[in-house]
Amino acid sequence: MPDLLLRGGRPWGLDAQADVLIRDGVIERVGPDLRADPAAEVADVPGRLLLPGLIDAHCHLDKTLFGGRWVPHSAGPALADRIAEERRRRAELGLPDVEHMTALLQRMVASGTTCVRTHTDVVTDHGLAGVEAVWAAQERLGGRVTIEQVAFPQYGVLADPGTAELLDEALRNGVEVIGGIDPAGVDRDPVRHLDIVFALAERHGAGIDIHLHDGGSLGTWQLELIIERAKATGLGGRVAVSHAYGLAQADQATQDRLGRQLADAGVSLVTAAVYNFPVPPIARLRAAGVTIACGHDGIRDLWSPFGSGDMLERAMHLAYRSTFRRDEEIEMALEAATYGGARALGLQAYGLEPGARADIVVVDASTPAEAVVTHPVRDLVIKAGRVVARQGALIG
Ligand SMILES: [Zn+2]
After folding, report:
1. I need a labelling partner for 34 at 20 to 30 A (CA). Which of 136, 143, 240, 242 fits?
2. DSSP assigned state of 377
3. Ligand 1 center to residue 66 CA distance, Å?
4. How far is the CA of 303 from the centre of ligand 1 (A)?
5. pLDDT tens for each residue of 183-193
């Protein structure tokens, strides 16, 4: 692969214009007036903002209907309604569908997403079919995006007997992360649920990412159980909790106390900021040292007809739901969609510094906040040093 020189852009975090020289998929140098080898590819990006590749830290590729015919939403209003409706209609709609997943991943890449964590259903109804389908879609993307799967017990671990064995098999087969879901609300036995999830993570050296929708003190109590286990097992830096509605609903003193404990244990939070679902107070949690990541959750599926695959747009929703108005506040939402996601996922060599993997998004915006608010068409998307999208369309 020839060197790639991005000329005249403004990397996020630098106050000045700087060229970026990329060699062998890695950022080699950042600075003014860099010279490139005559064989290098040169892309002029005068005055454009350069961001590190966007990270969708929570989605469900295996559920998506993206790119297919419109399917009117048919589930009732409760979480249990959506679980039951999906279980009823999955086969009829041919899910998981590699075509739909591929279409969504292509849209994500064209929007600047270079890394995705997807929660894949691992359930007794269809075993590891979702995991295999995501791998098939990943193959079709040909390295344009990094995909990490979470083996996700959508119907519970204890409530759907046989699931623990399937989770074990998924991790043995190479799935990187183990999920969980409402240890109390779905499985009605948080201690056993968490014991199983943490034991599997330890056995396979996997990360952990638990859906925690349970609200109020039931939710914060389970968060404490997760923090305790993260510390006891030493898995801290590899544990994430998605949603954490109970934390969002707690009083400020409880939020501050749990914020300190999350930071101390190295447990990350992932939020999607969809509908009116509670969003943890990201500014205060970040100040306490908590890693905050962001994702779409469901995109065009039986859970939600919404979602575009664009993480700048998702960051806008997070900023809006957080009542952020000032640039430095809005940048916190972008941080969740970039550096925060990278920390939560444990990505190495992420960013815009020399030595980082060259995952870069070029966007026409005067500031990062403007990029979030207007989320314009991405001028260029670079994955590991290779231009993979230009002007919002996939190439190469
Ligand atoms: Zn989810």
Report:
1. 143
2. P
3. 16
4. 10
5. 999 999 999 99
